[in-house]
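stage 2 :: seqdesign
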């Protein structure tokens, strides 16, 4: 019967190289190499408007994910959401005071909205 102490058992385990880490890094480098080879084969000048549209959609999705993360992080802070709501109310009140107090200003705002509506909706 062999008497093995826990210290010698731990030392022998830590001396072994991590096969999982080396295996993962080699697989990762192989996959990334294949992806780069395939991307280099693509003729990007032939993509046209569909490629641009897909790119724009991808950028918008990534931007929305980042914005959601930032807003969720801000929302976790105790006082910031309430202060941002108060700031929004102050800005809305100031804009309303400057643009909606007289009938001439209200008509000007209404005309600007109509112009924008015709411009964008036809």
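stage 2 :: out
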């Amino acid at each position: 019967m062999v008497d093995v102490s826990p210290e010698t058992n731990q030392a022998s385990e830590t001396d072994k190289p991590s096969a999982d880490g080396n295996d993962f890094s080699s697989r990762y480098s192989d996959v990334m190499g294949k992806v780069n080879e395939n991307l280099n084969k693509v003729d990007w000048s032939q993509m046209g408007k569909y490629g641009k549209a897909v790119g724009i959609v991808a950028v918008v999705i990534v931007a929305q994910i980042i914005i959601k993360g930032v807003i969720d992080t801000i929302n976790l802070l105790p006082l910031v959401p309430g202060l941002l709501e108060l700031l929004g109310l102050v800005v809305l009140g100031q804009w309303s005071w400057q643009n909606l107090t007289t009938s001439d200003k209200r008509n000007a705002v209404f005309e600007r909205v109509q112009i924008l509506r015709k411009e964008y909706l036809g």
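stage 3 :: structure notes
- The mean pLDDT is 82.
- The CA atoms of residues 68 and 118 lie 32 Å apart.
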